[in-house]
């Protein structure tokens, strides 16, 4: 069996960047239009989010000026009706602060165009700090400085 190689996809890149734009504009309903209604859809975040319910995913509102800002080199590829996107965006908060993130997404071509069927967005935390931070966040255990 011969498999065709993935090819760069400006359409997928533009779809996800439009998703970012709609989020930052506070256009939750419009951003949701770029998310697939496929039952396989799932969004995963670094704060324990695991959303595989369409109604739950689409129930929130979006605060204007809060959302994703593209990183320096977002990349997208496709092979037929499936493709992927990766980026190192910043999450912008309404108060002007920002957090470095990592994002990967899988998209599929549907009747209205490319739609996000899976996304994973996480905070870029160095490995040596993950265990300590998870203990604090998940179990309320105070952080212990290395060497203490």
Strand tally is 9
**Alpha-beta classification:** alpha+beta
CATH architecture: Roll
Give the overall shape, derived from the CA principal axes. Answer: globular
Kindly provide the radius of gyration, computed on alpha-carbon positions and rounded to a whole number of angstroms.
17 Å
Helix content: 25-40%
What is the fold named in CATH at topology level?
Nuclear Transport Factor 2, Chain: A
The whole-number mean of residue pLDDT values reads: 88
CATH class: Alpha Beta
Q: Number of domains in the coordinates?
A: 1
Record keyword descriptors for this entry.
148 residues, alpha+beta, Nuclear Transport Factor 2, Chain: A, nine-stranded mixed sheet, 4 helices, globular
Secondary-structure map:
Layout: E1 7-8, H1 10-24, H2 28-32, E2 42-45, E3 50-51, H3 54-58, E4 67-69, E5 75-79, E6 82-87, E7 90-92, E8 98-110, E9 113-123, H4 127-139
Parallel strand pairs: 2-9
Antiparallel strand pairs: 1-5, 2-3, 4-7, 5-6, 6-8, 7-8, 8-9
How would you characterize the overall build of this protein?
Strands 1, 2, 3, 4, 5, 6, 7, 8 and 9 form a nine-stranded mixed beta sheet that branches. The protein has one domain (7-139): Nuclear Transport Factor 2, Chain: A. The protein contains four helices and nine strands. The mean pLDDT is 88. A hairpin with a 2-residue loop joins strand 8 and strand 9. By secondary structure, it is an alpha+beta fold. The chain is globular.
């Amino acid at each position: 069996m011969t498999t065709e190689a993935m090819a760069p996809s400006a359409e997928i890149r533009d779809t996800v960047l439009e998703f970012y734009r709609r989020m930052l504009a506070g256009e939750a309903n419009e951003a949701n239009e770029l998310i697939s209604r496929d039952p396989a859809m799932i969004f995963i975040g670094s704060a324990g989010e695991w959303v595989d319910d369409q109604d739950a995913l689409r129930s929130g509102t979006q605060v204007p000026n809060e959302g994703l800002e593209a990183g320096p080199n977002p990349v997208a590829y496709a092979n037929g009706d499936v493709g992927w996107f990766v980026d190192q965006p910043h999450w912008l908060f309404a108060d002007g602060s920002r957090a470095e993130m990592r994002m990967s997404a899988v998209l599929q071509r549907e009747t209205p165009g490319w739609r996000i069927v899976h996304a994973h967005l996480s905070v870029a935390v160095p490995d040596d700090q993950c265990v300590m931070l998870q203990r604090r966040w998940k179990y309320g255990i105070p952080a212990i400085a290395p060497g203490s």
